[in-house]
Amino acid sequence: MSQHQTSTRRLARRVSWETILALLLLFAVVGGTFLNKDFLTAENWSNLLANFVEIALMALPLSLIVITNEIDLSVASMLGLSSSLLGLLWEYKLAMPLAIAICLAVGALCGALNGFLIVRFRLPSLAVTIGTLALFRGFAYIILGDKAIADFPPEYTGFGIGVIPQTFIPMPFVLFIVLALIFWVGLHHTTVGRSLYAVGGNQTAARFSGVNISRLKMLLFIASGVISALAGIVFTFRFSSSRADNGTGFELSAIAAVFLGGVTVQGGKGTVTGVVLSLLLIGVINNVLTLADVASEILRIVTGSLLIISILLPNLIASTRERWRLMQRQREIAKLGAASVTK
After folding, report:
1. pLDDT tens per residue, range 3-25
2. Distance between CA atoms of 116 and 221, rounded to whole angstroms?
3. Relative orientation angle of helices 250-260 and 272-291, to the nearest 10 degrees
4. Cβ–Cβ < 8 Å for 288, 35
5. Tens digits of residue pLDDT in 64-77
6. Handedness of CA 240, 246, 250, 251 (dihedral sign)
7. Other CB atoms closer than 10 Å to residue 293's CB: what's the count?
8. Fold annotation for 10-331
9. Cβ–Cβ < 8 Å for 226, 183
10. Which residues contact 86 (CB under 8 A, 6 or more apart)?
């Protein structure tokens, strides 16, 4: 093998998916700067970061679920249910801290229902969460119908739209960063995180290694329910509006961010860093297109295209690497054969 080929292979191994995402993000930021003079303003970046907070929150537990080779399509419906319930409880003059606690508890129950059906009856998570996607959204409409509730306390809506003093960073974005750090430590530096990778890689081997797979998956779906409910609360305060249709379609963006972040469909691979970078990348792309007055339908097409690319590209890279390894083996075998003939 030539020195050039060896250097190329070493470089390919060193260039991680996170590095590629960081370069794409940098390219998107530079492109946005040239395309619109308002792109780099503090006001625009404050809006940019705020506009994907709810999706980013839902993507954190979803990424861990996908690593275990499961899926949760009901996250946006749980957001809508939480938003509707918060509005109803506030309309009935319940104290806001208690209303928030009840919404989070209902989110935990919704997640537990998903986990129970998947773990206890061994049903496919795709089928279960498609069903609960419709179920939870239906409950949201039963609670509020078509009406909207908007009269929330200013100290709570102030959190939804406020920024850290002397900065452009939205307060809800800080909440996301804190949770992202917790998930990063939990996934990459704890026994639980290693167990998640083991379950996604090979459930049978993980079970024989002593991993309680049922409990682990149940906890993941409960966490997904709680954080989706939290996203619904943040959304409600940010827009000062409680509606049953809040967050409709957000599950597509959350899933796209997870897959684009390098979490594979087959499970067992992925990082929180990659998911955070993909969230920022999608946020920048949507912001640039919005500044360019691109229609919302085009934004949906872009999100769908990113989802397809995020699933297709890792498979293409894996198959290319496999073909490369096979070609290298064939060359080595041919060289050995030629050497033995010469002798």
Report:
1. 444 444 544 444 688 998 999 99
2. 9
3. 130
4. yes
5. 999 999 999 999 99
6. positive
7. 6
8. ABC transporter involved in vitamin B12 uptake, BtuC (1.10.3470)
9. no
10. 99, 100, 103, 232, 233, 236, 242
